[in-house]
Design brief:
Blueprint lengths: L11 H6 L3 H17 L4 E5 L2 E5 L3 E7 L3 E5 L1 H7 L1 H4 L3 E2 L4 E4 L6 H25 L2
Antiparallel strand pairs: 1-2, 2-3, 3-4, 4-6, 5-6
Helix pairs in contact: 2-5, 3-5
Length: 130
């Protein structure tokens, strides 16, 4: 199924429900790691994928035929570049192969990094206002 063929969905639960049970389990586990690492973040669907926001966009994730994409923005990728080098990826994304365990501890640290980064940016903006 191509990304453009995926139906629209309003919730992360509806998104996850579209996939086979084994992939659903991985997506739920990823979601739980994100929630535990960013308990104040709000869940939403953005760019047709599950997303979390806290003082702006935090992280996104999506399932594909052979991998789970994790999108912690380019700063999240850059900050953990060495640890993520074992995975396929790009400037703002990393691909975790389906069928291999997700690196929960690494994901937790990336999400916590993004939380701190977003909160610092929000704090700087408030301080800059006259």
């Amino acid at each position: 199924m191509k990304e453009t063929d995926k139906p629209d969905y309003a919730t992360i639960d509806a998104y996850i429900a579209m996939f086979p049970p084994d992939v659903q389990a991985e997506l739920q586990a990823l979601r739980q790691v994100i929630r535990a690492s960013a308990p104040d973040a709000k869940e939403k669907i953005a760019y047709r994928m599950p997303a979390f926001e806290l003082a702006g966009s935090l992280v996104y994730f999506a399932a594909y035929k052979k991998h789970i994409g994790f999108y912690p923005t380019s700063s999240g990728i850059a900050a953990f570049k060495e640890e993520l080098s074992a995975y396929k990826g790009s400037k703002g994304a990393v691909q975790f192969p389906i069928g291999q365990p997700l690196p929960h501890e690494l994901i937790r640290r990336i999400v916590e990094y993004r939380v701190a980064e977003n909160l610092e940016k929000a704090s700087s903006k408030r301080r800059a206002k006259p």
